[in-house]
Amino acid sequence: MELNQVYMPSAYPAIDAATRAHGFDMASDIAVGALLRTLAAAKPAGRFLELGTGSGLSTSWILDGMDEKATLESVDNDKALLDIAGKHLGGDGRLTLHYSDGGDFLHEKAGERYDYIFADTWHGKYLLLEETLEMLNRGGMYIVDDMLPQPNWPEGHAEKANQLTQYLRERDDLAVTRLNWASGVIIAVKQ
Asked: Of 61, 74, 143, 168, whose Cβ has the fewest other Cβ atoms within 10 Å?
């Protein structure tokens, strides 16, 4: 690979094309995807959770970083987008896609533990945050993106992002780093 070429998972271009054709414009940044991949590689044989599959763009990055013994559960409430993810990633035996409301899913999975949680939707990020963090194993990573102002943010969303950042920083059971990079990423590791 040449230095000026950008690496991406093999399924990414097809998912991206299907996502654009569908008109979905809230996909994660490629730089965030690359980070998700790298962080996934740090959790061999890990249990992964993605809240907000979307069309599977971020999912493809996470899967690409996971080893063969790791598993990923990913949930979304948009059937059309989940179908795109299923079409392009459904053959990967490490992946289980769930068509569900995020809140319902989190309540159903209460008591489960994960080594890596990427919260890319309201549930797990702004709603049911405490329940989500409770699902994180010691040494597990909690990752959120879109923490820098985005053009598609609704009125008042900046305050929610600031409150989330402050809340995570004030917890004494998390080591937190906020990255002023890509769309804005927070990585928290449970101590």
From this structure: 168
User: Across the chain, where does the E strand assignment appear?
Assistant: 47-51, 71-76, 95-99, 114-119, 136-144, 174-179, 185-190
Distance CA 81, CA 78 (A): 6
Asked if residue 188 has pLDDT above 90, the reply is yes
Is this prediction's pTM over 0.85?
yes
C-alpha closest to that of 77 among 111, 104, 109 = 104
Q: Check residue 6 and give its pLDDT.
A: 74
106: left (phi over 0), alpha (psi -120 to 50) or beta: alpha
C-alpha–C-alpha distance, residues 73 and 96, integer Å: 5
Secondary structure (3-state) at 25: coil
* Residue 105: HSE in the Cβ half-sphere, 13 Å Cα cutoff: 24
Reported as a single tens digit per residue, the pLDDT across 117-159 is 999 999 999 999 999 999 999 999 999 999 999 887 888 889 9
State the Cα torsion 95-126-82-60 to the nearest 10°: -50
**Rounded distance between C-alpha atoms, residue 48 and residue 111, angstroms:** 15
Query: Could you give the residue ranges of the DSSP H alpha helices within 115-154?
Result: 129-134
**Separation CA 132–CA 155 (nearest Å):** 25
